[in-house]
């Protein structure tokens, strides 16, 4: 093959296609689809993906540029993933390059550096020569002295210095130095005898190898023999030792021991759910199962035993778990059963660690990956099963390009591999449950907890009533009584604060002023560290003001609707209680999350107080009380899924209580006790919730009756954003059939981000193709404006945040 088709690393509509490059002789036969290359593109050198190979190009040889460099010796993307990327970019209306990159770990993404090269040294002034320090080239990012930039620019204009773009390859692999004997034992012994008394360290090192010591890392050898690297150096010089470098994996879990667990004998109910999955694995067929099981019904054990069947067939499996429930407890359950066959991928890992886990998959060293959303792209080639735990979790949706949902990708991959998908949840999404009811998915119910433990007793407390009775505290009398009782019995409690978004803000107690980001129309988030305010959208930062800019009052301070204030109040009313608080503040440091949880598990505290991050996955036998301080917060978000999210969250949290022998109690405090999403938590009645919520969705043409898409238009000028949104809305109204309902345009709930005004249009549709065609035409029409960043148009075919 003489020509490679390459998709280059530029996110632009004009460039969103493969370009032809000539394959130079020395790379002929080496380049394969799925490899990364470096190619010239205009004045730049860019990274790109080879998407096709052919004998010749319509471009005549003269104008066709050559592939400059080959970055991979084996493809980083399999053929299946290459195909998946085209499907993904099509489905989500994102650039091909963005879809390709979404499938790779960050360490493999291109990074560019501006490089300055001396063309005419004679012309340069001494200070510039000094800057280059006799080198021919220099990285722009290495220049620390800003004052030199303007004279530098003059030389660049004159052509004495050239600017090029260089693709920086990140150092990916971690290598360690290994030492072994460089001569046979007799020779080592001869040298050992000849050593002087002062050289006792050399003697111990030699003795190690004379005694048959194996190849060992330099660091370990030094430790073992109490010697230094200088000692090793001397021996290396003499040729008595040799060194080599070996790749090692940064294994974030290497220090932990995993106790091997054996499969449990399944309950009758579990067995009934397991059989069809087992059958699908054996028959090698694609099928989607919805495992609908109450919390504690033993879903995870079913996953484990299904995976066992898959691995026994020599196949591979992917398990997706929401980021926040990817706790050590969860990881232990998989590592405990499958040991070193498991790779773990989540955002808490460093770029290097993520890359290493990915390489284990690529090299076929593991056959199971447990990970958050992006693990769905694990480069397995013989997939036997995909499991999505807590399938209702909104974190499976990526909120940036490509805006994909991991469930759609999972089903697509499973179709390709003819293997089953298992979706598990106590509170499935309405979409999934409706599909199961229609027989598109197969419903596998688990109605009881393992060993028939009862579901916890849930009581709803009307907080308006509390206030009428003179209780101004954030704890109702019932919750207080329960807390005291559990403390007395030496049992544990979990207190859940339903926080929506970022409620740690600063407020003036006198006039109610809350500092807003000057660019984004949202409240700034308070960061205790350094007493600063930060904007979560644009990164703007400023110190906390000493006095209120509105009224001059000094009573402007952190408003703890947050966990911190609850903790303060808790220590006042229950001074004897030991409290562990888990929120963004206490868990920001690496490993902190895990430490706090294990401390709680070991009984070092009576109460675990936290936000959403404690709602899932926790399984502590001694927890017999769960308190929800404010059930309503999620109910009032401007989103058609608000009721569904509330029901899911409350059910999840309630599930943390009484999972083992001791019975559990749940106290839910609310200002809207009559709402069905809150009422039905009391009876754990998913079915009834489903029926009621479906009626609402039908009446308002929301999913699962209609799909929803969101188009957001932004511009630096509010009027331009509004006008463009208006035009787009009209265009869609004219172009789409009567089955498509177009709402808006309207200002987005967050009306401005990064100084750009935002308008949105919500589309309810049934025909995906028809809408896609219209939306593609719109993107094509505005492509020049978009390229120049005058107007930005973002399209989400299945939004989970209507902001
Ligand atoms: P879920 O994932 O549905 O919330 P889990 O799989 O976490 O439920 O199971 C809850 C508890 O029951 C766990 O401690 C688990 O070890 C235990 N368990 C699950 N299946 C069985 C079984 N067949 N026999 C005994 N214990 C089981
Ligand atoms: Zn004020
Ligand atoms: Zn901002």
UniProtKB/TrEMBL annotation:
One of its GO terms (molecular function) is ATP binding. Binds 2 zinc ions per subunit. GO terms for biological process: DNA recombination; DNA replication initiation; DNA replication, synthesis of primer; double-strand break repair. Signal peptide: none annotated. Keywords: ATP-binding, Coiled coil, DNA replication, DNA-binding, Helicase, Hydrolase, Isomerase, Metal-binding, Nucleotide-binding, Primosome, Zinc. Its EC number is 5.6.2.4. It comes from the Bacteria. Zn(2+) 1 binds at residues 508, 511, 548, 551. Its cofactor is Zn(2+). It is an enzyme of class 5 (isomerase). Residues 543-697 form the Helicase C-terminal domain. Zn(2+) 2 binds at residues 517, 520, 535, 538. Residues 473-500 form a coiled coil. Residues 280-446 form the Helicase ATP-binding domain. GO terms for cellular component: primosome complex. The keyword Nucleotide-binding applies. NCBIfam families: priA (TIGR00595), PRK05580.1-3 (NF004066). Component of the replication restart primosome. Initiates the restart of stalled replication forks, which reloads the replicative helicase on sites other than the origin of replication. Recognizes and binds to abandoned replication forks and remodels them to uncover a helicase loading site. Promotes assembly of the primosome at these replication forks. Belongs to the helicase family. PriA subfamily. This is Replication restart protein PriA. It comes from Bacillus velezensis (strain DSM 23117 / BGSC 10A6 / LMG 26770 / FZB42). The gene is priA.
């Amino acid at each position: 093959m003489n020509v490679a088709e390459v998709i280059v690393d530029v996110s632009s509509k004009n460039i969103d296609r493969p370009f032809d490059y000539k394959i130079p002789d020395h790379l002929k036969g080496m380049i394969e689809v799925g490899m990364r290359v470096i190619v010239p593109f205009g004045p730049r050198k860019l990274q790109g993906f080879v998407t096709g190979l052919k004998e010749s190009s319509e471009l005549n040889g003269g104008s066709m540029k050559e592939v400059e460099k080959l970055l991979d010796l084996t493809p980083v993307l399999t053929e299946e993933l290459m195909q998946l990327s085209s499907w993904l970019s099509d489905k989500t209306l994102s650039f091909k390059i963005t879809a390709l990159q979404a499938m790779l770990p960050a360490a493999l993404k291109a990074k560019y550096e501006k490089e300055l090269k001396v063309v005419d040294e004679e012309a340069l002034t001494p200070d510039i020569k000094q800057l280059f320090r006799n080198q021919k080239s220099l990285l722009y990012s290495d220049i620390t002295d800003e004052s030199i930039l303007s004279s530098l620019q003059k030389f660049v204009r004159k052509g004495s210095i050239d600017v090029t773009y260089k693709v920086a390859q990140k150092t990916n692999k971690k290598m360690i130095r290994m030492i072994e004997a460089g001569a046979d034992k007799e020779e080592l012994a001869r040298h050992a005898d000849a050593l002087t008394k002062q050289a006792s360290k050399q003697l111990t090192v030699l003795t190690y190898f004379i005694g048959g010591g194996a190849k060992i890392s330099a660091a370990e050898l030094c430790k073992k023999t109490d010697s230094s690297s200088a000692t090793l150096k001397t021996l290396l010089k003499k040729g008595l030792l040799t060194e080599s470098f070996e790749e090692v994996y940064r294994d974030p879990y290497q220090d932990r021991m995993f106790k091997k667990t054996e499969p449990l004998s399944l309950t009758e109910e579990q067995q009934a759910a397991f059989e069809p999955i087992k059958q699908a694995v054996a028959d090698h067929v694609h099928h989607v199962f919805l495992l609908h099981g109450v919390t504690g019904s033993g879903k995870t054990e079913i996953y484990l035993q299904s995976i066992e069947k898959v691995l026994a067939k020599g196949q591979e499996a992917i398990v997706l778990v929401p980021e926040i429930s990817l706790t050590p407890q969860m990881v232990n359950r998989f590592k405990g059963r499958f040991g070193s066959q498991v790779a773990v991928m989540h955002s808490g890992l460093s770029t290097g660690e993520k890359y290493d886990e990915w390489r284990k998959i690529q090299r076929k060293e593991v056959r199971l990956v447990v990970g958050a959303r992006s693990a769905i792209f694990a480069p397995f080639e013989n997939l036997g099963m995909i499991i999505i735990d807590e399938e209702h979790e909104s974190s499976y949706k990526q909120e940036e390009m490509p805006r994909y949902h991991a469930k759609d990708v999972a089903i697509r991959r499973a179709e390709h591999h003819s293997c089953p998908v298992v979706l598990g949840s106590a509170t499935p999404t309405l979409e999934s449950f409706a599909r199961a009811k229609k027989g598109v998915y197969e419903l596998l119910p688990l109605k009881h907890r393992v060993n028939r433990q009862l579901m916890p007793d849930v009581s709803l407390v009307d907080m308006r009533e509390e206030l009428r009775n003179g209780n101004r505290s954030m704890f109702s009398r019932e919750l207080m009584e329960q807390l005291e009782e559990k403390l007395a019995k030496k049992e544990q409690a979990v207190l859940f604060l339903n926080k929506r978004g970022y409620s740690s803000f600063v407020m003036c107690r006198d006039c109610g002023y809350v500092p807003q980001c000057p660019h984004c129309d949202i409240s700034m988030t308070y960061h205790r560290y350094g007493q600063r305010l930060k904007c979560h959208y644009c990164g703007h930062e400023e110190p906390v003001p000493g006095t209120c800019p509105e009224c001059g009052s000094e009573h402007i301070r952190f408003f703890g609707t947050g966990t911190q204030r609850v903790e303060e109040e808790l220590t006042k009313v229950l001074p004897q209680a030991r409290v562990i608080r888990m929120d963004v503040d206490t868990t920001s440091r690496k490993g902190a999350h895990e430490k706090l949880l294990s401390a709680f598990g070991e009984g070092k505290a009576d109460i675990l107080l936290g936000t959403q991050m404690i709602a899932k996955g926790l399984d502590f036998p001694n927890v017999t009380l769960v308190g929800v301080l404010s059930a309503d917060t999620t109910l009032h978000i401007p989103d058609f899924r608000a009721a569904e999210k509330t029901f899911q969250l409350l059910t999840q949290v309630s599930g943390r209580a009484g999972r083992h022998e001791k019975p559990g109690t749940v106290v839910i405090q609310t200002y809207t006790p009559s709402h069905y999403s809150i009422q039905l938590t009391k009876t754990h009645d998913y079915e009834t919730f489903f029926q009621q919520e479906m009626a609402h969705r039908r009446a308002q043409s929301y999913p699962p009756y209609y799909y929803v898409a969101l188009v957001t238009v932004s511009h630096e000028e509010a009027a331009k954003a509004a006008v463009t949104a208006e035009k787009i809305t009209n265009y869609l109204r004219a172009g789409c059939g009567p089955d498509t309902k177009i709402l808006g345009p309207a200002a987005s709930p967050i009306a401005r981000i990064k100084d750009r005004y935002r308008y949105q249009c919500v589309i309810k549709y049934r025909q995906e193709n028809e809408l896609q065609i219209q939306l593609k035409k719109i993107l094509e029409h505005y492509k020049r404006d978009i390229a120049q960043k005058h107007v930005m148009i973002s399209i989400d075919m299945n939004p989970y945040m209507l902001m």
